[in-house]
């Protein structure tokens, strides 16, 4: 199964140039059973990454372009009247997919954003009192521009808490951008990618990741880091218990991806900025990343 992960990583690298760490983090969220939030400027490959992932796992991909006039039923689906049968029938929305890309999620209104809350946690959608399960595995990738905030609706804390981790692709290096130009002549499209792993294998990998050993001392380290966010004077809202669970699951997934059956402190240290950073509300406009890095330095490593 680790060979499957290596094949998946190589497949994604064919379209995403030089973003090994970002690919690894997305796979951590996928195999950890969570969702990913990509905070980056336009044009760095966020949509390409989501489409390539869906193609590589042979899953159904749906893209949701979030705008202020987007309605909750545009996300979940709605019941429509069928004159032939004389009854209502359900028309599924784009949320019924294996990989859902919610592009510029903060441009949707809070009412529409809330349509994603249930499915991200319960893997089901309730319309007119009827709950319907989405295809499994279900993985959501949301994007937002961290620079342009005009006409946007910041995600509430409950929504941010649903994302296992947040990451940024960032601009490519000079050599990577040059390689992109040189590859234009024989550019590989997402449609050209061949599936290298099945949906059933993704489910199996999630089960295997959950079996990675996390020693009690490492669990205490995770707990100390989380509880420190609730007591720090520079933080007005600390990490919830959901964040504690997400950090352990992400740690297990990273350890498995790196070829180990046990987690180590370095796994936690690498993931903490990505798993805890977006869950914090800091005081005085301080950067959540700098606060998290300070907390990392303050906690003894087991």
Features:
13 helices; 16% strand; 44% helix; 302 residues; 5-stranded parallel sheet; alpha/beta; two-stranded antiparallel sheet
Instruction: From the alpha carbons, calculate the radius of gyration and give it in angstroms.
Output: 20 Å
- Strand pairing plus helix content: what structural class? alpha/beta
Question: How big a fraction of the residues is strand?
Answer: 15-25%
Number of strands: 11
**Assembly type:** single chain
Number of H/I helices: 13
Query: Main sheet?
Result: 5 strands, parallel
Distance between the termini: 30 Å
Shape: globular
What would your notes on this structure say?
By secondary structure, this protein is α/β, with parallel strands linked by helices. It is 44% helix and 16% strand. The chain is globular. The model has no long low-confidence stretch (mean pLDDT 88).
Short description:
The protein has 302 residues and is of the alpha/beta class. The protein has helices spanning 2-13, 20-31, 46-56, 72-76, 110-113, 115-122, 157-160, 174-182, 199-209, 216-231, 241-257, 265-276, 288-298, and strands at 36-39, 61-65, 77-82, 87-92, 99-103, 124-127, 130-133, 139-144, 165-167, 235-237, 281-282.
Write the layout of secondary structure elements.
Layout: H1 2-13, H2 20-31, E1 36-39, H3 46-56, E2 61-65, H4 72-76, E3 77-82, E4 87-92, E5 99-103, H5 110-113, H6 115-122, E6 124-127, E7 130-133, E8 139-144, H7 157-160, E9 165-167, H8 174-182, H9 199-209, H10 216-231, E10 235-237, H11 241-257, H12 265-276, E11 281-282, H13 288-298
Helix pairs in contact: 2-11, 10-11, 11-12, 12-13
């Amino acid at each position: 199964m680790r060979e499957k992960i290596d094949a998946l990583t190589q497949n994604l690298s064919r379209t995403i140039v030089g973003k090994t760490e970002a690919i690894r983090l997305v796979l951590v969220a996928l195999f950890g059973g969570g969702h990913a939030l990509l905070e980056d400027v336009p044009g760095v490959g966020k949509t390409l990454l989501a489409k390539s992932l869906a193609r590589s796992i042979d899953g159904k991909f749906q893209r949701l372009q979030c705008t202020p006039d987007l309605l909750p039923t545009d996300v979940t689906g709605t019941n429509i009247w069928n004159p032939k049968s004389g009854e209502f029938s359900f028309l599924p929305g784009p949320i019924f997919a294996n990989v859902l890309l919610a592009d510029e999620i903060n441009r949707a209104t809070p009412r529409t954003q809330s349509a994603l809350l249930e499915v991200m946690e319960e893997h089901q959608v309730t319309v007119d009192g009827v709950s319907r399960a989405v295809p499994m595995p279900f993985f959501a990738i949301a994007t937002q521009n961290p620079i342009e905030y005009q006409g946007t609706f910041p995600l509430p804390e409950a929504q941010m808490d649903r994302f296992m981790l947040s990451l940024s692709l960032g601009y490519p290096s000079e050599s990577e951008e040059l390689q992109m130009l040189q590859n234009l002549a024989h550019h590989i499209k997402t449609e050209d990618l061949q599936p290298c792993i099945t949906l059933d294998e993704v489910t199996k990998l999630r089960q295997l990741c959950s079996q990675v050993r996390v020693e009690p001392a490492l669990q205490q380290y995770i707990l100390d880091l989380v509880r420190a966010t609730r007591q720090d004077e520079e933080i007005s809202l600390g990490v919830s218990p959901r964040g504690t669970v997400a950090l352990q699951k992400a740690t297990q997934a990273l350890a498995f991806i790196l070829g180990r059956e046990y987690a180590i402190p370095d796994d936690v240290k690498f993931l903490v900025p990505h798993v805890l950073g977006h869950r914090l509300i800091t005081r005085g406009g301080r950067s959540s990343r700098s606060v998290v890095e300070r907390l990392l330095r303050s906690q003894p490593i087991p």
